[in-house]
Amino acid sequence: MRNKLFPVIATAALTSVATLFVASRVLDRDQGHFAVTNSRPVPVNYVNYAGAAAPAGAGFELAAESSVKAVVHIKTATAARIITDNSMGDVFNQLFGQRQYYIPSQTGSGSGVVISPDGYIVTNNHVVADANEVTVTFNDRYTAKAKVIGTDPSTDIAVLQVEGERNIPFMEFGNSDDVKLGQWVLAVGFPLNLDATVTAGIVSAKGRALGVNRQRSGAPIESFIQTDAAVNPGNSGGALVNTTGQLIGINSAIASPTGSYAGYSYAIPANIVRKVVNDLMRYGAVQRAYMGVEYLDSRTASPEALTAAGLDKTEGVYITNIKANSGAAKAGLKKGDIITQINGVPVNSASDVQGQIARYRPGDNISIMFNRSSKMMTANVQLTNFSGTTDILKSNSSARMLGATFRPVTDSEKEKYGIDKGIVVSDAGTGALAHQAKIRKGFIITGINNIPVGAVADLQQLLVSNSTVQIAGFYPGTQGMYYYTINNNGAE
Q1: Is 126 an annotated catalytic residue?
Q2: Catalytic-role residue among 67, 126, 298, 337
Q3: Catalytic-residue membership of 426
Q4: What is the tens place of the pLDDT at every residue in 253-263?
Q5: Do domains 59-282 and 399-487 have the same CATH topology?
Q6: Which residues, 6 or more positions from 488, have their beta carbon under 8 angstroms from its beta carbon?
Q7: What is the assigned CATH class of domain 293-382?
Q8: Is domain 399-487 given the CATH code 3.30.70.260 in the classification?
Q9: How confident is the model at residue 43 (pLDDT cuts 50, 70, 90)?
Q10: Is 427 noted as a catalytic residue in this protein?
């Protein structure tokens, strides 16, 4: 029996010895490997493709370098003020006098773009709105006070000027109609009070309407370029730039649940900016042009509205009404026509139409391509102003609307009555203003539909975009605010 067990025991012993020997050798190797790992980092490589060329248009160095020289940091200051509640029917006021509210001083900041060597700067209206003092800091750290030349709440554009020629670096306008989806762009500005900052992204959409300009205008015009370039508070008024360094938009808004960048930013197209800026510099007021049509936006209309109009496609903009004696009526356009192009540019929504018309003045002619009963046709339309003429309106001029004549308040009247802006009824006339509201000569209008007005052009824009308006104002020498509602359909 012992003779039979001995070979088994011997074999097991030899196997154990061999196992221990091999294990010790392997352990020595592993210990050596770990020691090397502790003294040398794991190799890390860039994930580029060796020898591959950079994507076309992806070189941003020259565009970034030239852009930051023409983008400025804007800081604003609003003085503390006291607001008086002039409500006439308030029993508290009658017993204890008018209530007053103290609004403390405020500061803000944004960005701007130099557009000429003599110091003209474009920014957003909301950056400088209500500011008592505007300061501009240039790329070379030079700081100066700026004068507000003009503002346009409808497009959210403002023009500033720093007086004194300094041969300032400026940016040239590009053609925003040439902007393509997927195109690389740069956003340049002063976000979060940082120094000049450049971010990159692509154009993700065109002709966007957000409704954000309704906060300050009753006649908003929105046809934004949407990008995914990072934009944060402080970027407002800064530049959207193509890879050749041209200005193709003014950054204005972001879509975000938090107030900071969340992936979407919006810029006002350069072609709209250029027209508004030229108007403000030349006339002091934007010359708004109209075709004289009402239309249905097939992209946002309900299925019921589309069915009622007999539409089964979304291309083009459906005309629901033509105003008598308008440029569209004289050109032969009719209800039921579907506008597909304006001056060769396709339009598929209300924002597309607004974006195209906003770049023209009264008296300009545009080419309209439209579909009538499945037949493509063209027409030339002469644009007019709100009153149906081609006259130019200046900010300090008077105008006749609702059968009455209006003019802006003077600086002395602002100081005397403690107001920032307003419109004076210089002649009540015999039209809707006098008949419906019984408003008399001398009444000072401070707001329309809860939107402040300070120029006759503001009043025109609000009247043309609202069939019913509520007028707020006061009579000099009396206490209290008055409110009137007027139906201005067809009233001139």
Answers
A1: yes
A2: 126
A3: no
A4: 998 888 888 88
A5: no
A6: 402, 432, 463, 466, 467, 468, 469
A7: mainly beta
A8: no
A9: very low
A10: no
